[in-house]
Amino acid sequence: MSGTSSPDYKALFLKEAELQKQEEKRRKQAEYRQDLAEDQHKQEQRRNQSKTFGEFIHACHILLSRPLKVEAPARSTQRIIPPPTGKYCPARLRLWEDCPARQQAIYDAVSLSVAVLHVVWCMDHQQYSCRPLSISVLR
Questions:
Q1: Would the N or C end of the chain have less CB density within 10 A of its end CB?
Q2: Rounded mean pLDDT of 8-34?
Q3: Which segments show compositional bias classed as Basic and acidic residues (predicted)?
């Protein structure tokens, strides 16, 4: 038995420990990628889920009422802007005094139409547990 050497247990142990570390690292990376994919999927579902009319109007208001941001002159147009040939372009602007009242009238008419269509749809489909429209839509 003098010709056979015993295996280097310390080297085998260290090699196995390194393999376990690598496997653990791969497992954690896989979990992270899976969690990230699930989060992205949930965000996509929330973004694409159907909205009520009130939620839609609120989202439009938030998006359109964001203040404009002034950028540095270096980021602005540096060349001559061509005239809007063949396009609609106002020659002058004037104050639209009854704009808020007209907007409110249009909003009220659309809100009422949406509410009526919702009720009719629920009745046609015999869905008596339809999700009620928000009170702000029915004003």
A1: N
A2: 93
A3: 20-47
Number of H helices, E strands in the chain: 4, 0
Q: What is the pLDDT of residues 48-107, one digit of tens each?
A: 777 777 788 788 888 888 877 778 877 777 788 888 888 888 888 899 899 999 989 998
User: How many domains would you assign to the chain?
Assistant: 2
Distance CA 44, CA 56 (A): 17
Does the predicted TM-score (pTM) go above 0.70?
A: no
Domain assignment present for 84: no
Distance, CA of 48 to chain centre:
8
Q: Does any domain span residue 107?
A: yes
Q: Concatenated DSSP letters for 68-102?
A: P-PPPGGGS--SPPPP-TTS---S-----TTHHHH
Q: What domain range is 103 assigned to?
A: 51-65+98-139
